[in-house]
Amino acid sequence: MKTRPTKTSKSPSVARGNASRDRRRAGGDRAARSAARRGTILMAALSEFSESGFAAARLEDVAKRAGIAKGTIYLYFRDKETLFQELVRATLTPVIGNIEMMSKVDIPTAVLAERIVALFVNEIFRTDRKDVIRLMITEGRRFPKLAEFYYREVLSHITAAVRAVVSRAIARGEAPEALVRFPQIIAAPGLVAIMWNGLFDRFEPLDVEAMMKAHVELLFAPRRVP
After folding, report:
1. What does the angle CA 170 – CA 172 – CA 174 come to, to the nearest 5 degrees?
2. Is the pLDDT at 188 greater than 60, yes or no?
3. In the chain, ranges of CATH 1.10.357 domains
4. Which positions ≥6 away from 88 have C-beta within 8 Å?
5. What is the mean pLDDT of residues 134-141?
6. Helix 12-56 with 80-103: angle, nearest 10 deg
7. Which part of the chain has CATH 1.10.10.60?
8. Which candidate, 184, 180, 203, 181, places its Cα nearest to that of 192?
9. CATH architecture for the domain at 80-226
10. Rounded distance between C-alpha atoms, residue 129 and residue 119, angstroms
11. How many C-beta atoms surround the C-beta of residue 25 within 10 A?
12. Taking residues 75-80, what's their average pLDDT?
């Protein structure tokens, strides 16, 4: 008579380990779904803000674009202002980080400026990020708290990075001293490009990359000694 093999039961420690692993896996899945939904809301908000403006945009319409209930937005963002602030952080913080890293590289200023131009053209102007900047240009005056936030989170970091680059350039005789006082001069073509794109590009397309390279040449070309 054959005896059936008996099943060996898992030890309590093994069972606890498996349960713990399952909980971690489930938690990771929930975190991934939550992050994906948050990203969907932010992209829907960018579309709605770009189309309607900050003042007229409604969270109901953001929710429709995202394919969720309006109440779901409040699980991630306190209100419309917080949603816009997080949109700024999510879209522009990576670019700011790249600019700050570039500013620490000690290479000829003209070369560094060309790299920053390429970063602007490829990572801002040719993407939806330019719409965030355009929103600040058009809405910032009406919403001073948003303008203050944008200055603190974006412009102050970029200005500091540009001043560091310009200070080295001046020490090497590669840039005029006025650029330390007015670093906005360097960023001016980027703002012109974004405004031109929204208003006049259909009448006269602008070669943004060529314009910005010309600007770099004007600022950092070798200076003749009189």
Report:
1. 60
2. yes
3. 80-226
4. 132, 149, 150, 153, 154
5. 93
6. 100
7. 14-77
8. 184
9. Orthogonal Bundle (1.10)
10. 12
11. 10
12. 96
Rounded CA separation 25/214 (Å): 53
Second CATH level (architecture) for the domain 14-77: Orthogonal Bundle (1.10)
Q: How many CB atoms lie within 10 A of CB 184?
A: 13
Q: Are 158 and 96 in contact (CB under 8 A)?
A: yes
Q: Who has greater pLDDT, 220 or 161?
A: 161
Instruction: Count Cβ atoms below 10 Å from residue 213 Cβ, excluding itself.
Output: 18
Model confidence band, residue 220 (pLDDT cutoffs 50, 70, 90): confident
Give the 3-state DSSP-derived string for the chain, with helices as H, strands as E and coil as C.
Answer: CCCCCCCCCCCHHHHHHHHHHHHHHHHHHHHHHHHHHHHHHHHHHHHHHHHHHHHHCCHHHHHHHHCCCHHHHCCCCCCHHHHHHHHHHHHHHHHHHHHHHHHCCCCCHHHHHHHHHHHHHHHHHCCCHHHHHHHHHHHCCCCHHHHHHHHHHHHHHHHHHHHHHHHHHHHCCCCCCHHHHCCHHHHHHHHHHHHHHHHCCCCCCCCHHHHHHHHHHHHHCCCCCC
Give the pTM: 0.81
Neighbouring CB atoms inside 10 A of 86's CB total: 17
> What type of residue is 70?
K
* Token couple for 28: 């990771």
